[in-house]
Specification:
The complex is a heterodimer of chains A (156) and B (555).
Chain A (H helix, E strand, L loop, with lengths): L1 E9 L4 H11 L3 E9 L5 E9 L3 H13 L3 E6 L6 E11 L5 H10 L3 E6 L2 E8 L1 H12 L3 E6 L3 E3 L1
Antiparallel strand pairs in A: 1-3, 1-4, 2-3, 5-7, 5-8, 5-9, 6-7
Chain B lengths: L2 H11 L4 E4 L6 H7 L5 E4 L3 H15 L3 E5 L3 H15 L4 E7 L15 H5 L5 E4 L6 H13 L5 E7 H5 L23 H13 L3 E5 L1 H6 L2 H11 L3 E3 L14 E4 L6 H9 L2 E5 L5 H4 L10 E6 L13 E4 L2 H11 L7 H13 L13 H12 L4 E4 L3 H8 L9 E2 L10 H11 L5 E6 H4 L6 H7 L4 E6 L4 H10 L14 H8 L2 E5 L2 H13 L4 E6 L25
Helix pairs in contact in B: 1-2, 1-6, 3-4, 3-17, 8-13, 10-13, 11-14, 15-22
Classes of the chains: A alpha+beta (156), B alpha/beta (555).
Bound molecules: flavin-adenine dinucleotide, thiamine diphosphate (TPP) and magnesium ion (MG).
């Protein structure tokens, strides 16, 4: 099962490598990882989506993260109310005749066209997991050429 | 003051008395300062030796061990030593030189990404890029290495930082907001534990290395005696409970005593103190002590419920928690019948060996060593059968008298670790119980011993085999001894060529005299004991079996 965890860390040399290294060394899977500075430039915020087969693994991930010297706090969002968002950029096949169909989609789903060139349109969307999933299903019907995503951001 | 001097002044502030190491290009400024600085420096013959010696010093004294090496190959040679300390939670600070800051990342001469390499095998590590950070970094390194669950910390110092000049400001107090170990146990949890103990019929104490780290041996004894519960220790816990105490069952696990393993498997309550339920101890996990509730006292939350389900976790320092627990137990459990059962196992399945052949038996040598020293010695070991016999056939009465690589199982550890221990306790007799394979892995340290008059007594259990591996081949690979026979040099001549003393023992009758001579000799001594080549370590729990499914050899 996937779990979303946020980790506040000291914004220091090598800290990303420590966190990433912990996951690889202990055989935990990272589905996504997003890192940035916080209001306090000495602290970074990581949102990590992990794959954990059971509660015991999740508990160990929490404890092992906490054990890293540079980790200040770890929050497991599994049982906590929180907001999460992801940004995706999707390149799809596009022909002028598709325009009404696409417009209809964006009335119902998150996202908008931010660029089109020749036969390609680039769609940008921000949403939670369900919203992004639903959008991608729709866009698939046009043929997705390329897809990039930021990974999830989560906040209490 | 230049960085190199700041480093040494900082070490002095930390109370460092001795550094083990080896010079090179990127630590020249440090060595220049060391030349007339009042900290003892021991030049080993290999950086691995320096790391293990610092480790052995730390294990025997409880203080932080310090080693020093140059960049690149010097630093990579420390790696096995750092990993060894990490696996056994030993406080150590490793200092490495690094190429100049402007060259980092350039594949410069003798550059290695040492903080990268050691990240998974250190508790923490630092690259110091600015001399202004140096003193504080060293203070933090010592604090991290020695507090909470101890472990090795590496400080990588580029050579230009060693040369750079700044004011020396020593931070008197260290506070790291992201690192706050828990020392006192939760009172509610301690109450719960006390209740479980009062209600138990078949409790057992399972104590580990954390008892020694914590200095909780007296509290452990007080608890065991108060509630009259049998005590087994892990390998790392040997010495944490008096080896001749009537409640002591010896070590448990793969090569533990049968009675310790039976007691744990049949128990209804396991009181785990500073032990981490290692796979050498639990055997097959789903079958480990099926009827037992578990109280687990450990300073590291990640040790708890890692391998087995725990009923009452108590995070904190063992000594603190045991003290509180002892006063919290109001009603004593009735263990009379249980102790009888356990004594029955002890009688029925004692540790034994066949002493019938003309060949010299390793167990006999250890019995003689016990008889001569009665526990008043520090016993270091290498890895293999000889190590396991040292666990079984010698009694450790006090903490820090058994020094051995448990978690990593590093061959080549014992000899340099023994040097470290001897330097920590010059008046104590220090032995290294060594296999003929292991001793050849850091044998160059004979040079260090003789040059510095570190008189270590090395007892080589020479069976002509990588015996522990051979034993597995005998039992599980149809006796196909694939690359386990191993040759040795003439240890007597070798020792002599270094200026040490060599003795050869081929018969039982010579054992005692040889040991006595070693003890009386004011020099490093190698005794080449030619032991029974195919002697096995029993009992033994085969891989994948529960710990009461032992092969007992002979009864
Ligand atoms: C060939 C070979 C065979 C082996 N066979 C066996 C065997 O049969 N039996 C056996 O037991 N081992 C055996 N070992 C050793 C084994 O691999 C482990 O090293 C050992 O079992 C670990 O001991 P431990 O659980 O006491 O943990 P340690 O590694 O000593 O860990 C200590 C624990 O205590 C905690 N701690 C630290 N400080 C404190 C404190 N102040 N307060 C509270 N808790 C603290 C730590 O967080 C940690 O969880 C063998 C090793 C080798 C090389
Ligand atoms: C550095 C290292 N390499 C390999 C091993 C695997 N290993 C464990 S015990 C052993 C044999 C040790 O032989 P020896 O030192 O002669 O001791 P004996 O078992 O014969 O007493 C080996 C090769 C190890 N533990 N450490
Ligand atoms: Mg051997």
């Amino acid at each position: 099962m996937r779990h979303t965890i946020s980790v506040l860390v000291e914004n220091k040399f090598g800290v990303l490598a420590r966190v990433a290294g912990l996951f690889s060394a202990r055989g935990y899977n990272i589905a996504s990882l997003a890192v940035s500075e916080t209001l306090d430039p000495q602290i970074s915020y990581m949102t990590i989506v992990v794959e954990a087969k059971d509660a015991k693994v999740l508990e160990q991930i929490n404890k092992q993260l906490n054990k890293l010297i540079d980790v200040i706090t770890v929050t497991d969002f599994t049982k906590k109310e929180h907001l999460d968002r992801e940004l995706v950029l999707v390149k799809i096949n596009y022909a002028p005749k598709d325009k009404p169909k696409l417009e209809a989609i964006f009335e119902k789903f998150v996202g908008k066209i931010v660029q089109h060139k020749a036969d390609t349109a680039t769609v940008e969307a921000v949403g939670d997991e369900q919203q992004i999933k639903a959008l991608l299903e729709e866009l698939n019907k046009f043929g997705v050429k390329e897809l990039v995503r930021t990974g999830k951001l989560a906040i209490e | 003051m230049i960085g190199a001097k700041i480093l040494l002044e900082s070490l002095k502030k930390e109370g460092v008395k001795i550094i083990f190491g080896y010079p090179g290009g990127q630590v020249l400024p440090i060595f220049d300062q060391l030349y007339d600085f009042d900290i003892k420096f021991i030049l080993t013959r290999h950086e691995q030796g320096a790391a293990h010696a610092a480790d052995g010093y730390a294990r025997s004294t409880g203080k932080v061990g310090v080693c020093l090496a140059t960049s690149g190959p010097g630093a990579t040679n420390l790696v096995t030593g750092i990993a060894t300390a990490y696996m056994d939670s030993i406080p150590m600070v490793a200092i490495t030189g690094q190429v100049g800051t402007h060259l980092i990342g350039n594949d410069a001469f003798q550059e290695a990404d040492v903080t990268g390499i050691t990240r998974p095998i250190t508790k923490h590590n630092f690259l110091v890029k600015d001399v202004k950070d140096l003193a504080r970094t060293i203070a933090e390194a010592f604090y991290i290495a020695s507090s909470g669950r101890p472990g090795p910390v590496l400080i990588d110092i580029p050579v230009d930082v060693q040369r750079a000049d700044t004011e020396f400001i020593w931070p008197e107090k260290i506070n790291i907001r992201s690192y706050q170990p828990t020392y006192s146990g939760h009172p509610g949890q301690i109450k719960k534990a006390a209740k479980l103990i009062s209600a138990a019929k078949k409790p057992v104490i399972y104590a580990g290395g954390g008892v020694i780290t914590s200095g909780a041996h007296l509290e452990l004894k007080a608890l065991a005696e108060k509630i009259q519960v049998p005590v087994t220790t892990t390998f790392m816990g040997l010495g944490g409970f008096c080896g001749t105490h009537k409640l002591f069952l010896g070590m448990l696990g793969m090569h533990g005593t049968a009675y310790a393993n039976h007691a744990v498997m049949e128990s209804d309550l396991i009181i785990a103190v500073g032990a981490r339920f290692d796979d050498r101890v639990t055997g097959r996990l789903d079958n480990f002590a099926p009827g037992a509730k578990v109280i687990h006292i450990d300073i590291d939350p990640s040790s708890i419920s890692k391998n087995i389900r725990v009923d009452v976790p108590i995070v904190g320092d063992a000594k603190n928690i045991l003290k509180q627990l002892i006063t919290e137990i109001k009603k004593l459990p009735d263990t009379a019948a249980w102790l009888k059962t356990v004594e029955g196992w002890r009688k029925k399945h004692p540790l034994t060996y066949k002493d019938d052949s003309a060949m010299l038996k390793p167990q006999y040598i250890l019995q003689q060593l016990w008889d001569l020293t009665k526990g008043d010695a520090i016993i270091c070991t290498e890895v293999g059968q000889s190590q396991m016999w040292a666990c079984q056939w010698y009694q450790y009465l006090t903490p820090r008298t058994f020094i051995s690589s448990g978690g990593l199982g590093t061959m080549g550890f014992g000899f340099p670790a023994a040097m470290g221990a001897k330097l920590g306790f010059p008046e104590k007799e220090v032995f290294n119980i060594a296999g003929d394979g292991s001793i050849q892995m850091n044998i160059q340290e004979l040079g260090t011993c003789v040059a510095n008059k570190i008189n270590v007594k090395v007892l080589i259990f020479n069976n002509g085999f990588l015996g522990m591996v051979r034993q597995w081949q005998e039992l599980f690979y149809k006796k196909r001894y694939s690359f386990t026979p191993i040759t040795s040099p003439d240890y007597v001549m070798l020792a002599q060529s270094y200026g040490a003393v060599g003795i050869r023992v081929t018969e039982k009758t010579q054992v005692r005299a040889a040991l006595q001579k070693a003890i009386q000799t004011d020099n490093t001594v190698f005794i080449d004991f030619r032991i029974e080549p195919e002697e096995n370590v029993y009992p033994m729990v085969p891989a994948g079996k529960a710990i009461n499914e032992m092969i007992e050899g002979l009864a």
